Amino acid sequence: MKNRRNRACILLIVFLVSWWSRKPVAVKAEGEQFAEQLYARSAVLMDADSGRILFEKEGNAVRPMASTTKIMTCILALEEGKTDSEVKVSEKACRQPQVRLGVRKGENYRLKDLLYSLMLESHNDSAVLVAENVAGSVQEFAVEMNKKAKEIGCKDTHFVTPNGLDGTDEKGAHRTTAEDLARIFRYCITESPKREQFLEITRKEMYSFQNIEQTRTFSCRNHNAFLKMMDGALSGKTGFTAKAGYCYIGALKSDNRTFIVVLLACGWPGNRSYKWKDTRKLMEYGLKNYQKAEFPDEEGIQVYIKDAVNKGNPYQKGEHLTAHIQKETEKILMRKDEKLEVKKKIPKNLHAPVKKGEQIGEVQYFLNGKAVCACPVIADETVEARSPGGCLAFVMKKLFLSP
């Protein structure tokens, strides 16, 4: 009897183990698994050509961004300031904490030299001097920074300081998101009329200059280690405060592909190398998984216009109008397993007259259900509206000009 009970218990245990092992186990998506491998609390990988976010980890989480702020300070100074202008050192600039150039009240500097100090060594006093030179004060410069951020398309960014040090005003704390910061950096390196000057400054390895009085000499060294870490590295900016942690923005170009990486809150003291590890990991992910693919060819588009003049006989209503898609680029960055969907938005009841070169609709391209590109549909020819005068002219021509 005892042996039977033992055998029954063993069989029951085997059954339960077997049943439990057959229960489905939750499998994390590839993106979730990859996100867990990153040290940064917020991270973004962007296609710089289209602005499409290829990967994000808490990309819309609002966080402080430390000295990565200075990319906005630099691009505004290049666009709105005069690089050969003289900058007089103020008391406010002298009071800025480390890291600083060490300017002295009453000295004079060239704006161009201060931009190298700003971007290579991340000097906080230089940032204040740049802001005061361009806008008259730090407060007014912050207004310009926020205005530019909105123009670029930032949704959750607010600038208070030109150097990224913690600050608060009536609209809240100095802050951004990884996605917004990627948009700003994309503007700096691909869209701004001063993008070439921005890249020249941020890629400089060493830069030396003097104050205008020529009583002091300074040397700046680029601290962006990523520039020598991977082939094709374009630009970047580091940042750190006790509140923000280590932050980084970087860009890389390879085989006609340009990637932007943004990292926020990527470790604190003792973890200085985390940002370089995360940057490499994200860039390698982009290089491995994303390739340029051509937009699908669309055959000639024809639109029927009921009230148009028929070319053969104006007494007959209706004419077919030919049109084409005006693409800004022929290729898009995408994964092999992604499929591009096309949706045409052309009015069903298009009315004459329509002029050659006029936009008559739009074609939208979607990846994974999200719109990635919208291209205008342009008329290839002019189509006139049917009118009594046109009909009369047709009749007169037939009567008097026909053989």
Automatic annotation (TrEMBL):
One of the entry's Gene Ontology molecular-function terms is: carboxypeptidase activity
Q: Which organism is it from?
A: Dorea hominis
Q: Peptidase S11 D-Ala-D-Ala carboxypeptidase A C-terminal domain: which residues?
A: 330-384
Its EC number is 3.4.16.4
Question: What reaction is this protein's catalytic activity?
Answer: Preferential cleavage: (Ac)2-L-Lys-D-Ala-|-D-Ala. Also transpeptidation of peptidyl-alanyl moieties that are N-acyl substituents of D-alanine
Q: In which pathway does it act?
A: Cell wall biogenesis; peptidoglycan biosynthesis
Top-rank taxon: Bacteria
Q: Which Gene3D superfamilies match?
A: D-Ala-D-Ala carboxypeptidase, C-terminal domain (2.60.410.10), DD-peptidase/beta-lactamase superfamily (3.40.710.10)
Residue ranges annotated for the Peptidase S11 D-alanyl-D-alanine carboxypeptidase A N-terminal domain, each copy included? 35-264
The protein's name in its UniProt record: serine-type D-Ala-D-Ala carboxypeptidase
Keywords for the protein's UniProt record, in alphabetical order: Carboxypeptidase, Cell shape, Cell wall biogenesis/degradation, Hydrolase, Peptidoglycan synthesis, Protease, Signal
Keyword Cell wall biogenesis/degradation found: yes
